[in-house]
Amino acid sequence: MHADCFHALNACSAAAKHNLTLTYNRGLADVVLKPLDEDYRKLAAVLEKRNETVEEAKERNRKGVHLRVRRFIDRPEVLYRELQEFFAAFDDRHSKEEKKGLFTKSALEGRVRILELSRRGYLSDPPNYNVYTFLRYDSEGLAIWRCHRGTNMLEGAHAWLIRSFSGFASGPEALESFLSGWVFRWNLNVSQ
Length: 192
Description:
This protein has about 190 residues and is mostly helical. Helix content is about 60%, strand content about 10%. It is built from nine helices and four strands. It has helices at about 5-10, 20-30, 35-50, 55-70, 75-95, 95-100, 105-120, 155-165, 170-190; strands at about 35, 70, 130-135, 145. The strands form two sheets. The protein has a two-stranded antiparallel sheet. It has a two-stranded antiparallel sheet with strand order 3-4. The longest helix has 20 residues, at about 170-190.
């Protein structure tokens, strides 16, 4: 069994309207999803020519960096230890007053759950399993990757439906007909 790391990260995310939210959420994601050294070095070399660091590029365009640098989730014992250290360090670094309102009750429960998932190995990448597909090279010669982590056939269907219906201006009868046909084809495909 394997858990979706993005759902686990969302479960222990900090409250949206707090000045420490971005620091906490990004720090947590960086602990769980570590950059692949090979891709990181290639991006750093390209950015060095522009007098820019990877960290500066992440501040400017985080998604662009993530498209070029594959990430992995470490072995259970390493991930569990690093998550414990992150939570402890964050709690030590910021006073109770600073953190007031930062975490909801469900976010604190999410911390416990993500620790348990990591301890049991449900978050870690399986050995020798690739969660990326090469798409193309950018103008700098860096590979652009598509991450399949956290995606499955059903989420792909949801994305397709959202794209299909955005801007759909027909009436409810046409929409119902379209959806009925789509559901029939979907059920036929997954039953085979």
